[in-house]
Amino acid sequence: MEEISRRKFLADVSLLTGVMVCHLPFRALAQGSGNGEEDLLAVGSIDGCVYQFDLKTNRLKKKVSVGFMPHSFIQNPKQEERVWVVSGWGNLAKEVDFRHGKVIRSWKAPSGFQIAGHGFHSSDGEKVFFSLLNLETGQGHLVGYHAATLQQTFECTVVGAMHQCHSLDDGTILLSSSGIRRPHGIPRSGPRLEKSSLVRVTGDGKVLGQMFIDDMDQVIGHFSVASDGTIIALTCPRVGANVSSGSIYVSQSEKFSLSKLTLPADVGSQLHGEFFSVAIDEADNCAIASACGNGLVDMSAIGRGVLFDFRACKFLGVVPLLASNIAYDRARRQFISGGNGELFRINKKSLQLERIPAGKDKLGYLRGPHSAIIRLKGTV
Question: Is residue 1 part of a domain?
């Protein structure tokens, strides 16, 4: 067994979970993708680059400089090689050709606005949307653009600040709202206007409904939606709140309400900061959400990943993490996360991190808050 570089990391993790970090070969766990397809893991680094890993060969394929720490990734469903790399609380997004490993073009937030870290493409690939923060009012805006020309075509707002957003299968849009509005300040600080919520709107911006969380100390930042409509929402503590960590909420689509995942007391006491990223294994009805403070910018920080049954809303266990990014690779049926110059597979049965050997590849500090599986349907 190979020790990770920090003895303190192992000691602290062992106290909480009884697990260790193993060095195991990165083998395929199930069938791979089809002929001519490429499965790439995209993860950002503090050196301002996007690292693309080939999940078939387990090696670094390309490294693309974008000039900022990538926060999230938006793949075009019709031109799958084109991926927007989005900054978190900055003013830039860059579209990258993942097949050739180069920046195609840049987009800058309008004057007086800041990018809030996330976005999505319409299902036809014709429009791209970004979540923005109005720096004067503190209000969240979802703004849509024609994907080819970047001419604005859509805009809607929420009561508080907005972070993550998703397009749903029925054509509606789901948005996060902090319920807090503080001009020129931290989006999760300031006076409450309403409880934090998920807001569902139509394609023309009409509000259809809201799901509120029953906790004035928590703010929804990130969420994900399973294929059956189940929603997993993650929160962070409101600035000034007397709580140390965020929470996990789960909703079935037919109820359109959020239920808090109950954690054992000894687990909850070990969690700190924001629940940041979530990855879903639909085949086994489980998900892992990362609780990593502020994305583990502190290189000595230790994070946790909470494993749970998202359909039964039941806690299953805890795994150690070195960063908040986490993705689920369906072809090989594995959870993957980055760390300090390394990639790890998360073994959900043993609750262990398993190192993915990097060979001679020199990796940066893979501390991007989110990662993504990018599937390219054929090479040219």
Answer: no
What is the total count of domains within the chain? 1
Domain contains 365: yes
Q: Identify the pLDDT of residue 30.
A: 34
- Phi and psi (nearest 5°) for 191? -70, 145
In a domain, 2, yes or no: no
In a domain, residue 368? The reply is yes
Supply angle C-alpha 205, 180, 183, rounded to 5: 95
- Per-residue pLDDT at 253: 60
pLDDT for the residue 322: 84
pLDDT for the residue 79:
96
Report, as ranges of residue numbers, the positions in the chain whose pLDDT lies below 70: 1-36, 252-256, 293-302, 378-380
Q: What's the pTM value of the predicted model, to 2 decimals?
A: 0.87
Domain housing 16: 7-376
User: Which CATH number belongs to the domain containing residue 14 in this structure?
Assistant: 2.130.10.10
pLDDT at 51: 94
Predicted pLDDT at 293: 61
The per-residue pLDDT for 91 is 93
| Cα 358 versus chain centre, distance | 23
**pLDDT of 183:** 78
